[in-house]
């Protein structure tokens, strides 16, 4: 993972902002436009390396190198050379349709994934030339001062300089569904999951606001390092290995029988052309010409059914892998469950069930502007609770005091609603 200490070198969250800014060769007042451009050229764009694109000819060539494809090509060529142009044409046409369908299907899936990636292009807010401005996330560089607000996707790894009731959801990195508080102050831990003063690329700001010093971008982030490992190579699936092995067995058996039959015919003095035609017919008869077409059509149907469930299949062979799965090991949160908090019931001070407590909580959540998981659950249970109420004053939830409050004017007069830990309230 990125940021692993080397020869005693500490993680960036173990350093003070001043020490880190000296290490990065920048100040804490943001970068100029010229300095940001120079750093962008030096460090590269804040993005993962795009997958190496394969051309159409490369994709077709890869499929033609399969043993079954080579057998069919050879049989078609020999058929045409010996005067059976119709038979040779049929064989080559079947092979061409299979390869074409496979190539087109995977090409469409790749283009759809790329269009989806471009459709969700993000922007980040950074301090440039003394003022905060929006820039594409690709232009964020180490040394930038980044401002993050509730709802933003964090664009880079960064050290928190100051924060106001700021929390971030790091489920994409740790699998933990609930937001974690982020605040300034160096920590001694070596674990990124315990670094409460660090923001990580790919996390989502849930509440509050924070300013942070950008430390790593692109592949030099925890998220980018993980993405790079996952994208290093495309492993051949069990289905592809089995098909390749079957093709090799068929090719060897066919070649051996053709040689034996041709040699036997020649030994008995049969005409060379007649012997060759018989050997080719034997090769074609032994070769399952329609197998590539059948597998491609079957997998394509599976890909279309998955597309109907809003799943893009980039490799057709993955359909077989999914169907052959016997045991699935997966993180429960956000996959088998929705990672959402819901209000089951509310209790009053005496411990008795009371809807009034939830209603007051929903009013505070609506007027206070907090968008934490608990606030969202209260609002969902009483969406119209704040109708007729007006905010007079609020104090945002503070993780140090563990209390937040709302002073509001409503139908029953003025009301102070306080939320927080029971002992703090």
TrEMBL record:
Entries under InterPro entries matching the protein: ATPase_P-typ_cation-transptr_N, ATPase_P-typ_cyto_dom_N, ATPase_P-typ_P_site, ATPase_P-typ_TM_dom_sf, ATPase_P-typ_transduc_dom_A_sf, ATPase_P-type_domA, HAD_sf, P_typ_ATPase
One Gene Ontology cellular component annotation held by this UniProt entry: membrane
Keywords on record: ATP-binding, Membrane, Nucleotide-binding, Transmembrane, Transmembrane helix
Cation-transporting P-type ATPase N-terminal domain mapped to chain residues: 11-84
GO-annotated molecular function: ATP binding; ATP hydrolysis activity; P-type ion transporter activity
Matches recorded under Gene3D superfamilies: Calcium-transporting ATPase, cytoplasmic domain N (3.40.1110.10), Calcium-transporting ATPase, cytoplasmic transduction domain A (2.70.150.10), Calcium-transporting ATPase, transmembrane domain (1.20.1110.10), HAD superfamily/HAD-like (3.40.50.1000)
Subcellular location: Membrane
Major subcellular site: membrane
Its membrane topology: Multi-pass membrane protein
Extent of the signal sequence: none
One Pfam assignment: E1-E2_ATPase
TM segment ranges: 249-269, 275-299
Record NCBIfam families: ATPase_P-type (TIGR01494)
The protein's name: ATPase, P-type (Transporting), HAD superfamily, subfamily IC
């Amino acid at each position: 993972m990125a940021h692993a200490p080397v020869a005693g070198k500490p993680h960036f969250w173990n350093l003070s902002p001043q020490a880190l800014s000296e290490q990065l060769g920048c100040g804490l007042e943001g970068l100029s436009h010229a300095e940001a451009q120079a750093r962008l050229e030096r460090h590269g764009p804040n993005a993962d390396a795009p997958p190496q694109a394969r051309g159409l000819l490369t994709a077709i060539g890869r499929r033609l190198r399969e043993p079954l494809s080579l057998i069919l090509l050879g049989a078609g060529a020999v058929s045409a050379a010996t005067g059976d142009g119709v038979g040779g044409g049929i064989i080559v046409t079947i092979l061409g349709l299979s390869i074409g369908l496979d190539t087109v299907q995977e090409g469409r899936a790749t283009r759809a994934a790329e269009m989806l990636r471009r459709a969700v292009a993000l922007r980040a807010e950074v301090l440039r030339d003394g003022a905060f401005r929006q820039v594409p996330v690709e232009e964020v560089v180490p040394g930038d001062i980044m401002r993050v607000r509730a709802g933003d996707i964090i664009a880079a790894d960064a050290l928190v300089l100051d924060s106001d009731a700021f929390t971030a959801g790091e489920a994409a990195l740790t699998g933990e569904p609930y937001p974690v508080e982020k605040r300034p102050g160096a920590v001694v831990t070596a674990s990124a999951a315990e670094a409460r003063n660090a923001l990580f690329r790919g996390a989502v700001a849930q509440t509050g606001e924070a300013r942070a010093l950008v430390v790593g971008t692109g592949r030099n982030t925890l998220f980018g390092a993980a993405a790079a490992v996952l994208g290093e190579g495309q492993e051949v699936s069990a289905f592809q290995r089995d098909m390749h092995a079957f093709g090799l067995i068929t090719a060897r058996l066919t070649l051996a029988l053709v040689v034996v039959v041709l040699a036997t015919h020649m030994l008995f003095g049969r005409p060379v052309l007649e012997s060759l035609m018989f050997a080719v017919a034997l090769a074609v008869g032994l070769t399952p010409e329609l197998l590539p077409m059948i597998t491609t059509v079957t997998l394509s149907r599976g890909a279309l059914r998955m597309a109907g469930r809003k799943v893009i299949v980039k490799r057709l062979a993955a359909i077989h892998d999914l169907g052959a799965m016997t045991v699935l090991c997966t993180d429960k949160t956000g996959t088998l469950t929705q990672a959402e908090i819901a209000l089951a019931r509310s209790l009053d001070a005496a411990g008795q069930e009371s809807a009034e407590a939830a209603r007051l909580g929903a009013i505070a959540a609506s007027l206070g502007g907090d968008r934490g998981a608990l606030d969202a659950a209260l609002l969902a249970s009483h969406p119209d609770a704040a109708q007729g109420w007006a905010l007079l004053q609020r104090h945002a939830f503070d993780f140090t005091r563990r209390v937040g409050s709302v002073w509001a004017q409503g139908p029953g007069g003025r009301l102070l609603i306080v939320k927080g830990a029971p002992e703090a309230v």
